[in-house]
Amino acid sequence: MSFTTLVDVATLQAHIDDPNWLIVDVRHQLADTGYGERVYAESHIPGAVFLHCDRDLSGSMNGCNGRHPLPDPEKLAHRLGEIGIGVTTQVVVYDDAQGMIAGRLWWLLRWLGHDRVALLDGGLQAWLAAGGAMTDVVPTLSPRLFVPLRQNQLVEADYVLERIETPHMRLVDARGSDRFRGENETIDPVGGHIPGAVNRFFKDNLLSDGRFKPAAELRAEWLAILAGSPPDLVVHQCGSGVSACLNLLAMEIAGLPGSYLYAGSWSEWCADTGRPVER
Questions:
Q1: C-beta of residue 118 within 8 angstroms of C-beta of residue 6
Q2: Would you tell me which CATH number, out of the four given (3.30.70.20, 2.60.120.10, 3.40.250.10, 3.90.70.10), belongs to the domain 6-129?
Q3: 3: left (phi over 0), alpha (psi -120 to 50) or beta
């Protein structure tokens, strides 16, 4: 059996020594980019390897492509194989930020054709609450061949611009409601949102303990947000293409697969003063 959306703590504990399972720690803070490596070195789930949001899960910024541009797919594939992800590997990803960073790796793996990837539901907090063991031992890597098979799950800025405020796209912004309105913008140089977008804060997919809401509840909420639009007309974005992946995951859990990511998101969009902004 493979897991493609979520794995609970009990299931991960049962597979903690399974050689066909690989745990990836992607803890990260935007304001302290060395945070993840520090806390990983102090303690992590046994067997977990570490990937860095900026170095491994993102490409180089050029001032026009957003704060977390997508990594080169061949370089990413090499790195994924290097840490031990092969065709049959069940990957489990976790963070301590309500899945915000883990969702990025979940989406990247699926973008490259690897569906055997799931988030640890509730993240590190759920693991600790259940008495899960922690260690500072860094595992020995067992490299495997990772062959990328890129999936059509991505759109660019021009695609979004051509479909703004038309029935041919349902644009969903995963940022908090204040930043969506153009208030309290402390990360990007321009406040506001892409015209026609609707707001679904990524944390609204979660229960108070950080686990995802039940599938039926997510489905009802997302059908209301989509307002009749089919999933294959839905495009997700956020500030830099990271937290939006949690909305993609939530739709998968809800049985509404097939939506797309605008990876450049608001940070790329607002870098071009010729693109429209709504507040």
A1: yes
A2: 3.40.250.10
A3: beta
pLDDT in tens, 65-75: 999 999 999 99
- CATH number, domain 154-269, options 3.30.470.20, 3.40.250.10, 3.30.70.100, 3.90.190.20: 3.40.250.10
Tokens of 186: 């402390």
First-to-final CA distance of the chain? 46
Is the Cα torsion angle 218, 150, 153, 79 positive or negative in sign?
positive
**Cα dist from 175 to 2, 180, 215, whole Å:** 31, 6, 22
The CA-CA-CA angle for residues 199, 203, 209, to 5°, reads: 160
On whether the CB atoms of residues 257 and 251 are closer than 8 A, the answer is: yes
Residues in the chain: 279
Got the DSSP string for 130-145? Answer: TT---B-PPPPP----
Rounded to two decimals, the pTM is 0.97
The structure tokens 């949690």 sit at 246
Which of helix, strand or coil describes residue 215? Answer: helix
Q: What are phi and psi of 181, to 5 degrees?
A: -80, -10
The residue from 53, 64, 238, 270 that is catalytic is 238
- Which amino acid, one-letter code, is at 3? F
Closest C-alpha among 158, 147, 163, 25 to residue 89: 147
Cα gap 248→244, rounded to integer Å: 7
Q: Is 245 among the residues known to form the active site? A: no
Q: Summarize pLDDT for 132-171 with one digit per residue, the tens.
A: 999 999 999 999 999 999 999 999 999 999 999 899 999 9
